[in-house]
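Ticket #212: bound-state structure for BIS(adenosine)-5'-pentaphosphate.
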Amino acid sequence: MRLILFGPPGAGKGTQAARLLERHPSLAHLSTGDMLRAAVSEGTPLGKQADAFMKAGDLVPDSLVVGLVVERLQKPDCADGFLLDGFPRTRAQAEALDTALDGAGIELDKVVVIEVPDSLIVERITGRRMDPETGAIYHMKFSPPPAAVADRVTQRKDDTVEAVTARLSKYHSETTPVLPFYDAKGLVVRVDGVGAPEDVALRIESALEGVG
Ligand code: AP5
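RESOLUTION: The complex was predicted; output attached.
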């Protein structure tokens, strides 16, 4: 299966990616957010350039992100399928991905759009906590961390009200215009992202019936 998980910040892309990977363990998970955060924490040249954009809730320039993904897609673990999470986010990224996949003779199966209204996003994002040891995603109200990990969970630097407002605005101005590109190819499935994560997971699984 070759999938794109698409949706606004806090839609549940990371949460649903983890569930999809439990059911489809051969898929490689390519989260550009995770890749960029790793580059920032390792202090690589890419990380140094990306850091300020991310903290402000801006998109990292296409010229930095596209190469990262195209290189990653060539790794052997992507041969059996992949789950792109947070990429593409601009029309230029979608076109670059298309060219790279065409060149490799690979076709995408679906673009799964997780739809969540803006009014729910700030609460989801500001309540999010991450386990730095396992990468597990929690929410202080909707999915609290268990006692054994509660002391070590951390909050992302861009999970402030100011940054999420900027991220949402970029989503609407730069990222949703990508969808017509995939609609024209008949690849888009839209899934209601409101409700318990397990219910959203069932909706995604049923939208993917017959794929792969
Ligand atoms: P990235 O890490 O991709 O962030 P994002 O797209 O803003 O998405 P999030 O990770 O915030 O949310 P999510 O949809 O994964 O939700 P989650 O499952 O965690 O990107 C970060 C930054 O990197 C960008 O702003 C940009 O600067 C840069 N970047 C990344 N990719 C780029 C690209 N391609 N081009 C340029 N720049 C790029 O859930 C959120 C919370 O909600 C959690 O607490 C979770 O527990 C909770 N939750 C999940 N599902 C539910 C539910 N059904 N009900 C209630 N709560 C729920």
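RESOLUTION NOTES: The chain is about 50% helix and 15% strand.
TICKET STATUS: resolved
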